[in-house]
Amino acid sequence: MRVAIAGAGLAGLSCAKYLTDAGHTPVVLESRDVVGGLVAAWQDADGDWYETGLHVFFGAYPNILQLFKELGIEDRLQWKQHTMIFNQPEKPGTYSRFDFPDLPAPLNGIVAILRNNDMLSWSEKIQLAKGLVPAMLRGQQYVENTDKYTFSEWLKHQGVSEEVQQDIFIAASKSLNFINPDEISAVVLLTALRAFLQEKNGSKMAFLDGSPTERLCSPLVDYITARGGEVRSNAPLKEILTNGDGTVRGFLIRGLNGAEDEVLTADAYVSAIPVDPLKVMLPKAWQQMEFFQKLEGLEGVPVINLQLWFDRKLTEIDQLLFSRSSLLSVYADMSNTCRGYANPDQSMLELVLAPAKDWITKSDEEILQVTLSELKKLFPMHFGENPAKLLKYHVVKTPRSVYKAVPGCQQCRPSQKTPIANFYLAGSYTMQRFLGSMEGAVLSGKLTAQAIAEAHPAANSSSLQMPTVQPATNAATA
Ligand SMILES: Cc1cc2nc3c(=O)[nH]c(=O)nc-3n(C[C@H](O)[C@H](O)[C@H](O)COP(=O)(O)OP(=O)(O)OC[C@H]3O[C@@H](n4cnc5c(N)ncnc54)[C@H](O)[C@@H]3O)c2cc1C
User: Fold this and answer.
1) CB of 8 sitting under 6 A from ligand 1
2) Cα 427 to ligand 1 centre (Å)
3) Which residues in the chain show pLDDT less than 70?
4) Model pLDDT, residue 461
5) Which of ligand 1's atoms lies nearest the C-alpha of 281?
6) How far apart, in whole angstroms, are the C-alpha atoms of residue 177 and residue 434?
7) What are the CA-CA distances from residue 387 to residues 14, 309, 372 (Å)?
8) Cβ 246 under 6 angstroms from ligand 1
9) Is the shortest distance between the CB of 407 and ligand 1 below 6 Å?
10) How far is it between the farthest Cα atoms of the chain?
């Protein structure tokens, strides 16, 4: 069976991959000249890669880890020491660590927290533990029900002080959804905390050994095309064409550079484009349906990624760092963390600027200058006398990235199956339990492939394995 998929981010590519496994033939349409969506990367004139975002993989990502295994590229994940490292703004240039010992969960997490005395006093540790107990013991249903609160409201409700929020959770909230705890839904932080505390290696991090485009998306495209599928770049979906009964008749592809528009017909259709363009492309006949109206409650959040090349080494730390700066979120010296970008003499910092709503319209030069002023606080020893010299930089702005996970969003996230018989959704914004992440994107694509394969078993599917998926959970179904 032929399946047309619009969008070649991780969700669209994962959907196509699992459809080929189920004996179907996917045709993936990507509007840009590069696949990968939010993990896309480009090479500059020197051959250096610059990326849409600094990406880390977690031990708590079962579906993406399984995908790496299935593609035979597990060795491309560079696992780091099990630790979380935070800058200490009150002592510029120093770090505070949460080191996870080799013990079963949740003991390793508890010991990591108990051993850290820089960021949490004993009374704060007790406060925090008491606050988190219900989320740990009462399960994901309890967590889903906290979607009515921001994380700040939930912490307050649990009697956790403002200081604990300042110390740890601003950094965590920005790293998970590029917004602060006074905006983010409590569901996001509590879901992540549960995964990190329940699984021994849940919070263990890995970096890819090069650009996601080359090291992850290319093998996915090769896998799909080797099994009869197609991935077409520069092929933007312009319109979803419908029949009289509201089902999809075809995908209209915009002709570029003077070429004619083209209609692609298939047996089933998938939107794996972000929720923002999908909302403006909904056929008239669907706009009154509650399922699609709920999408109005979802919107991409702005974020900015910077890569800065310096003439010297600024740090030897081989791990993600939580800046605890009001401007920046997480960052890493990719010359240490990533084999493909390794340099023993010079640093290449990759930094995420968030929340980015006040910066997204500013010029690259303004964004660079404000970031450099922050680096003076993070690396005072390299920006005093004889300061480190910036060799070059790239700024990538994403005005609408992952869905902004504010309270009330969970009930707006759609299932992969829609009320339209031959139309499905994939994307990290769709309902699955890994929120707006690479794992969420891969899992959503897998769930979509599974729904299609169940509705239309391929003639030769008896010999093929259906993908094993983590069940989607949402407030309605959990
Ligand atoms: C700065 C940053 C850092 C991040 N860090 C992490 C991290 O450390 N760990 C983590 O797990 N996740 C991280 N994420 C989130 C993760 O990248 C996303 O959740 C995931 O990649 C989303 O994949 P997707 O396929 O759902 O959507 P997208 O990647 O948005 O894919 C959608 C695709 O549709 C295409 N498209 C749009 N319109 C059309 C059209 N009309 N026709 C055809 N194609 C179209 C787009 O070009 C794109 O390729 C980060 C994201 C950003 C931006």
Assistant:
1) yes
2) 8
3) 458-478
4) 53
5) 41
6) 12
7) 45, 14, 11
8) no
9) no
10) 72
Q: Is 475 in the pocket of ligand 1 (CB under 6 A)?
A: no
Q: Which residue's CA is the nearest one to ligand 1's atom 31?
A: 9
Residue 54 resides in a domain: no
Residues 171 and 272 in one domain: no
Residue nearest atom 6 in ligand 1 by C-alpha distance: 55
Which 3 state secondary structure label does DSSP give 28?
strand
Q: Please give the model's pTM, rounded to 2 decimal places.
A: 0.95
Q: Which domain holds residue 453?
A: 2-39+212-298+406-463
CB 354 near ligand 1, within 6 Å: no
Query: Does residue 61 belong to any structural domain of this protein?
Result: no
CA triplet 167, 114, 186: central angle to 5 degrees? 45
Atom of ligand 1 nearest to the CA of 303: 1
- The CA 434 to ligand 1 mean position distance, Å, reads 14
Residue 138: what pLDDT? 84
pLDDT at 469: 55
Q: Which long-range contacts (CB under 8 A, 24 or more apart) does 292-296 make?
A: 292/414, 292/418, 294/411, 294/412, 294/414, 295/412, 295/414, 296/412
Alpha-carbon distance of 161 to 159, in angstroms, equals 6
Q: What is the total count of domains within the chain? A: 3
Segment 259-309, tens digit of pLDDT: 999 999 999 999 999 999 999 999 999 999 999 999 999 999 999 999 999
Tell which atom from ligand 1 comes closest to the C-alpha of 29.
43
Q: What is the pLDDT of residue 473?
A: 33
Q: Do 308 and 372 share a domain, yes or no?
A: yes
Q: Using H for helix, E for strand and C for coil, what is the string for 167-197? A: HHHHHHHHHHHCCCCCCCEHHHHHHHHHHHH
For ligand 1, is residue 355 a contact (CB within 6 Å)?
A: no
Q: Note the pLDDT of residue 463.
A: 38
**To test ligand 1's pocket by mutation, which of 17, 256, 273, 360 has the most ligand atoms within 8 angstroms of CB?**
273
